[in-house]
């Protein structure tokens, strides 16, 4: 039996190298880890799914999608997302979308301070913000690790 999901243009295979029987718990864990994209763009439709996710930590990259640096920022953000898959939801918030102003005000951010990372633990509402001059895998990783500790 072969189990896989298409996610972010990649095929994700359930690793069964040891040849053991695949049980329901293993299958559920695999689907849950791969049901969302590595980076999900925040909008009214995805907001419901993000809030109902079993993953309680959300890392938001709040940035201007029209910026010339956006493609490179997203590439690095996706790379970092792979390191925390199943532990932290990585979310893109476009600062140019009028409805996203509420997200920025929740984290007390202004457009002049972007790009920024905001991490949020939905269970106890603990949060932190990191203002960025450049998005790098190392800075994202360090920020997540400090919050996790």
From TrEMBL:
Name of the protein in question: ERP27 protein
Gene encoding the protein: Erp27
GO (cellular component) term, any one: endoplasmic reticulum
Residue intervals passing through the bilayer: none
Pfam families for the chain: Thioredoxin_6 (PF13848)
Annotated InterPro entries: Thioredoxin-like_sf
A GO biological-process term: protein folding
SUPFAM superfamilies per record: Thioredoxin-like
Family: Belongs to the protein disulfide isomerase family.
Coiled-coil positions: none
